[in-house]
Amino acid sequence: MNQPSAPVDQSDLITPFGYPINNKKFWIMTIGTTGFWLIYWAYRNFKAFETKTLNHPKLYAFMHAFFLNISLHRLMSLIEMKTGDYRINIRFPKIILSIAFLALSVVENYFSKGILVIELSCQVLRLLIAFYIQRTIFDTNQKYRPETVYETKYSWKEIGAIILTVIFILGVNGLKSISSTS
Questions:
Q1: pTM of the entire structure?
Q2: Alpha helix (H) ranges present in the chain?
Q3: Is the peptide bond before 7 cis (omega within 30 degrees of 0)?
Q4: Which are the contacts of 91, defined by CB distance < 8 A and separation ≥ 6?
Q5: Nearest to 44, CA basis, from 102, 130, 159
Q6: What span, in angstroms and rounded, lies between the C-alpha atoms of 77 and 38?
Q7: What is the pLDDT averaged over residues 86-108?
Q8: DSSP H or E segment with residue 93
Q9: DSSP secondary structure of 149-170
Q10: Residue 76, strand partner residues
């Protein structure tokens, strides 16, 4: 097992890397909220990886999470730096993943012209990129922080987010069907 390099606060040795969530919950929440939950996932990871040197860590984390399309590179860099402090060698293909994540968002929002197959393909590919990062965080915790307790239960807020998403989707589809019949 790799030993941490100095100077590392000993209490930090039991702190999990990033947002400790299991992969199943990641998928259920992301799909259940049609991707909006990724903002919360990114917020929790930015908050976990870069808070000690900031005056307003919650605002910083929110801004980076909200603009994840352009801050994904920063998130991967933070993961690499934090794990590097413990001599854990994690390297992401940051430029490729960041450009792909942004390009897929642009294609989905500006060039798909409402073609469902293109929109869904872009969303799935973006989720796979985010999951690659999530899986790396999860695997790193499994290997180097085996005592990590993962969030597996769903809070009432998370359940409410999924319910609101379903209601919104049903409402939008209902409005589309009403407008197409008139």
A1: 0.84
A2: 23-32, 37-49, 57-66, 68-84, 94-106, 116-144, 156-181
A3: yes
A4: 80
A5: 130
A6: 18
A7: 95
A8: none
A9: PPB-S--HHHHHHHHHHHHHHH
A10: none
